Fold these 4 entries.
Entry 1:
Amino acid sequence: MKSTLAILLVVATGAVTACSTGHVARLPTYKLEALRAEALRGLPPEETGTFRASDLVEVTTLDPTILLDVRYATRDNFLHWPVYSEARVFLQRPAAEAVVRAHKALQPQGYGLLLFDGYRPWYVTRIFWDAVPPEQRDFVANPDQGSKHNRGCAVDLTLYVLATGREVEMPSGYDDFSERAHPDYGGGTAAQREARDLLRRTMEAQGFTVDDIEWWHFDCRDWQQYRIENVAFKDVAARQR
Ligand SMILES: [Zn+2]
């Protein structure tokens, strides 16, 4: 997601504080299902060059104490529709292993990692693009270019409290498209900013880079070495057996 949506929403609503994802026009289910059918018929952009072989792994198989909250598998997302049929998070193996190391590094401080999203099949990026009105499209990745999520090299995540399993409060929620989501946002409480900065430091120590406008989105190094993929979760899982 990109910052332009936040700007557009601020212009559209006159709001100066958090704009929620609810501002994206809601589409009826039959339209979303038609978009999915069309996206599944589409083809990702052709890429030339040399790429590493894909090695997508399900992160929780490496460490089951990593928690998931895959909102795209529920109605609790900006489309209000479960775009994923399964709540699973896959990443390229080096990225998945780095996430596990970050999770372990947090444990002595009483925290663990809660994952929202990882590898995203290309057709889902296409659905996002088609479901968003043209004037708001700057906040979704262009399917003609694909995204780092499509390469299995981006992860959306936050902290949870090990003792309770509760998600830690951050300066904004996940998929909040306002300035509160920026990793250098100075508002919110000191505790919220400290938690956000702890997440960032921990992920950076494992070679990830935080997104400019989303504190929860981290890109793995070497993302250029992996192709855009369009394999459904169930087929990725089958490939591992
Ligand atoms: Zn992301």
Entry 2:
Amino acid sequence: MSDPLLSVDGIDSGYGETKVLRDLSLSVDRGDVVSLVGRNGAGKTTTLRSIMGIVTPTAGSVTYRGEDVTTLPATETVKRGISLVPEERRIFPELTVMENLEIADHGGGTEADSLSIAEALETFENLRERTDNAGSSLSGGEQQMLAIARALVGGADLVLLDEPTEGLAPYIVQDLMDVVRELNEQGITVLLVEQNVHVCLELADRNYVIDQGEIVYEGTSDDLADNDEVLDRYLGVSV
Ligand SMILES: Nc1ncnc2c1ncn2[C@@H]1O[C@H](COP(=O)(O)OP(=O)(O)OP(=O)(O)O)[C@@H](O)[C@H]1O
Ligand SMILES: [Mg+2]
């Protein structure tokens, strides 16, 4: 068995005096879609920030491609091929779609293969007709697509998606899931954070359920879909 692409081992992490994550472990194999699903305030975003190095864990380790990246700042983890698409979908609203992509395209400064802008526009067809439109004129779903496209143009082989479907209309959620699937087929590994377990069950190879800063369940989508107790207790849904 080969080593996982990303391995988080027993991290504690938080903000100053506030401890949020306790002894949290997860791993992501190359080529997989792995979900981290949990309620509001469970610690999902803090987990992604700890992987990126926006927040530094106080215990445990984060290993990427066999390298200990626990204490590296985000500027360094990005260079190694990890990219975070945050909840706020950071795009530049005053710039056009093309300009947003051009800024992300910093000329192969990372260890990951980056998509060319032309390749990105192949995948994100709804951006193709809008390259001259301002970022601010895009719908929520299109802004999400642009934020993901920016991560790929910048060169990422592991993309961390923080609640990509939040606030999107159901038919846009479908489009977004299609895009994630397509990218995954092209070799991009995905760690998907969601509150919407249905999205996880459709996309993920494996799922981690997080509650109050701890992983309380790990399983395949088939197993999680059958686990009424976990779904009800931690996610408040019946599938
Ligand atoms: N900058 C911060 N300073 C102090 N506490 C924070 C900070 N950011 C988050 N927290 C706290 O950490 C806990 C976990 O927050 P986090 O944002 O990781 O949760 P989440 O699972 O992403 O939630 P959501 O689904 O609402 O995005 C919460 O109790 C939150 O109040
Ligand atoms: Mg969050």
Entry 3:
Amino acid sequence: MSFRDKVDKRLSRKQKAYEIESLMKNKRSEDYQVIEEVFDKSTLMTIYDFMNKGIIDEIHGVVNAGKEARVYWGKDTEGNELAIKIYLTSSAEFKKGMLPYIEGDPRFSHVRRDTRSLIYTWAQKEYKNLQRAKDAKVNVPEPLAIQKNVLIMNFIGKNGERAPLLKETVLENPEQVFKLILTYLKRLYTKAGLVHADLSEYNIMMWKKKPVIFDVAQSVLIKHPMAERFLRRDIENLHRYFNRKVSDILSVDEIYVRVTGGRK
Ligand SMILES: Nc1ncnc2c1ncn2[C@@H]1O[C@H](COP(=O)(O)OP(=O)(O)O)[C@@H](O)[C@H]1O
Ligand SMILES: [Mg+2]
């Protein structure tokens, strides 16, 4: 690399650091190393695009830092709170894990198989699944926009403080909450035609006394060859969590029949 190139590179790094810093309202929310990893050039362009369209007005701190995605708190131009989920295009082992949930889904059978395309598909899939779930009247975060690896939803919580997970909540009325989750699962299966496929107390929030189901990128159509197995696993997780919290709880088999309406 020539001296000139080195200088250019340093400059563009500085430029980028500056851009991201001015983008983030709370500069100290993450160290620069992490920010740089999440906001690669393409992601930055996507964010700018959302800003130009008025979909995002401000980005504040990080709500959650997962291995595959980070969720940021933001606001639109009217001050409505947003959850901005950014899938990490640098996540390498991601690809292997995603494939079984993409293959077997006719909605995505024609997509390219390179890592970046798969991650875009993954984000797209989460958006579409949220949309289907919402149309079926399942309580989910409302999907607002999707572009490349960036998904925007309404924020579940208030003033940047996310709603507690089911896992973090002591329920006053576990019976009612359990019943409501089953109702949502039934709607998800029979109306949206989806199986969540990663359901647990970690992917349900409690907000305004109601469960909110989320994290649906891996959710599959009921026609998917593994759908039955995934649904059974979801129900087992739920049963394990609510067992001893709900008296006379239905068995896994009974729940399965209730959720699917006996359909296969
Ligand atoms: N729409 C949202 N509103 C508020 N917080 C959210 C929202 N979506 C996700 N979160 C928070 O971010 C965390 C990670 O989100 P999730 O979709 O589960 O990503 P991952 O794929 O990393 O598990 C959640 O546990 C939740 O606390
Ligand atoms: Mg999750």
Entry 4:
Amino acid sequence: MEVLSGQIVLANTQRAIGYVIAVILSIGFVVAVVANMRKGRREVGSEIELAANRKPYYDDDTLETTKLDRTLALGLATLAVIGVTLPLYWLAEPGRMEGRVEAYNETFIKRGEELYNTGAQCAACHGPKGVGGAANYTITAPNGDFVAQVSWQAPALNTVLFRYSRDEVRNILIYGRGFSPMPAWGAAGGGPLTDQQIDNIIDYLQSIQLSGPEARAEVEKELADTCAPDADGKCTVPGGQFATLGEAIFNMGLYTKFAGGAYSCGRCHTDGWSYGQPGVPGGGAFGWNLTGGRSLRQFPTAAQQIEFVSVGGVAGKSYGTSGLSGAGQMPGFGVNPNVTPPNIPGPKIYPMSPDQVMLTEEQIAAVVQYERSL
Ligand code: HEC
Ligand code: HEC
């Protein structure tokens, strides 16, 4: 806001200066016209003595040396000024325009940050800087009866643009997630924010995304603590909850609340997972039921399933044998959807890089192997 009002003041000052110059020029013009007219009147009748072309002028010598030289020098100087300033202007213009774009990017991100932290209270559930958190939530039966009061994990958003395109995030923000604590924010979903405010929030989210290596290191550490897989992918942590690397990835954060479950599959594919009361693993919730050999029918080969889990659902696109992605809410775990030159969306000062992905190829292969065993 400060930046904006500063710009308005600046624009007003410039306009004021413009008006002053315009007024001075107009007055000068009027004075010149009047003076000229009066001079012309004075000369009426005196043409013979004072005709302009009979006024004594410089003699040939002066005309062809001093006067000519001075005029030529003046012309050369003017040309030099134009010759220097025009290229300088050309050189500076793209930089100036870029500077303006950057200034606007910064302004949008600032507004998004304000909304994230206070205006829309995203931070209350998703944690400061999108590190993940939880929300208190009352589960009710379809008839409205109270069922339970729970703490529902809210996924980390500092990797949300690793797994969803900006359009997919916009869609989630506008409509929220039914049957979960995530409210609708856009007008179309009955929420309080304007399209521009939602875009500002997405710009802010883009500015707080982890780097690829940072995210990878966090995941490596979590998996070392909860599984520590051997060469065959069997977990070796004494007394650990998971048998295989695939199972540990599928449930990453179930007991530790790591990143609000952002890297897990269970939070969408296992009923009750997000509030610590997991039902049948992969039994289906917001994401499809994956049990009973369902994956094997949908994806005849593991490679096809790995491909789908890497790219995720794309709104309205079919996948596998008979799959159709609704709103593209199945995240992509191995391919960053926001890296598509030349039209990379979002603030140019925070471009996304292809190594910003949720899971490595080996991790995806492990979790797919686990799913195919369900
Ligand atoms: C009352 C708590 C709460 C508030 C406030 C809230 N969220 Fe959420 N949000 C959640 C929960 C819980 C989920 C996970 C829902 C689920 O289990 O599918 C979620 C899911 C999401 C997702 C989907 C992420 C994914 O990987 O599935 C996005 C994006 C998101 N929220 C962004 C926001 C933004 C931006 C705001 C602020 C405008 C916000 N949320 C405010 C609780 C909240
Ligand atoms: C944010 C919720 C969410 C998360 C997290 C999630 N999924 Fe999904 N998944 C879905 C949805 C929704 C679908 C249905 C397809 C669609 O709409 O894109 C789906 C579909 C699938 C399918 C196809 C099922 C079929 O038979 O059609 C597979 C396989 C799958 N997910 C695997 C995974 C794996 C593996 C992970 C973790 C690495 C995972 N999912 C994490 C929401 C999720």
